[in-house]
Amino acid sequence: MIPVDGIFVIDKPAGVTSHDVVARVRKIIGERRVGHTGTLDPFATGVLVMLVGRATRLAQFLSRAEKKYQAVIRLGYGTDTGDVTGKRLDDAEKNVTMETRKARRIHREDIESALASLRGEIEQTPPMYSAKKIAGRKLYEFARRGEEVERRAVRVTVHSFEAVVHDGAVLKQNDDGTLDLTVLVVCSAGTYVRSLAEALGELLGMGAHLASLRRTRAGRLKIENAVTLDQLNELAQSGSIAQALIPPNAALCDLPLVQLSADEVRCTLHGIDMQIDGEVTKQLSGSQPVRMSDANGQLIAVGVYDHSRRILHPSVVILNE
What we know:
Blueprint: E1 6-12, H1 18-29, E2 34-36, E3 45-52, H2 59-62, E4 67-75, H3 98-103, H4 108-117, E5 120-124, E6 133-134, E7 137-138, H5 139-144, E8 154-163, E9 171-173, E10 179-187, H6 193-204, E11 208-218, E12 221-222, H7 229-237, H8 248-251, E13 257-259, H9 262-269, E14 274-275, E15 289-293, E16 299-306, E17 311-317
Parallel strand pairs: 3-11, 13-15
Antiparallel strand pairs: 1-3, 2-3, 4-10, 4-11, 5-8, 6-7, 8-10, 9-10, 11-12, 14-17, 15-16, 16-17
Helix pairs in contact: 1-7
């Protein structure tokens, strides 16, 4: 077994589930404590953040990070899953000739207006084909049995929803008359990009679905930091796994930092609250997660600051005594 505590950024391939990736990483490194911070659909690719060993305790602090995607939205028909793996919905479209399809014109101004209307805070109803749980079961389990379950709309934030221009054009014409629109999306955790694709199609007066989806960033962890499963296996075989490992402290670098003395480290390992004063308190706000590290920069715990009492409580202890 390779002793590993930290974060791997895996470039997930298409055709496998996020759970499949977890199982593969467990096998490669010989560690049972492996989890991810945000599911990617089987057809999707890109950044899948894997927490390993004691770093699995950090899931709550990393799963809420904003995400960035590159997607291709196919305009022309929708599917029952909202993506390319689903069954085509608008059978009436099959009777439209290719000449009629090619004669369609969507103005760039209409696309830009539709994209703009879907930015900011919006409400989304979780798709039936999603991993969201209701009554302890994943929605796609109901959907595969043909059951429709009532879902409550949730508020999400779309920070950016932009068309990518290729050779001066935003649309690519396909042989079957459909149109492909490549977009970049930056959004809060819990946003369904395929729901954005369907909503965009509605605004443009036609069915739409995701033809492809690639996550390029989760928080500060980017696709440039990622390794494939095959690369991770090669590193493990050569004893070089540390090359791909991101330390917990680095993964949480957005959080404010409190450096602990040796005595404070011992208290933190026992879950004892710490009184803090002085300059460090200026960067802290109430109920805010705080990194608690030793003099060597090793993450000891993530604490929560009580502003009224100026107390830092070690909420999640990473190291064992």
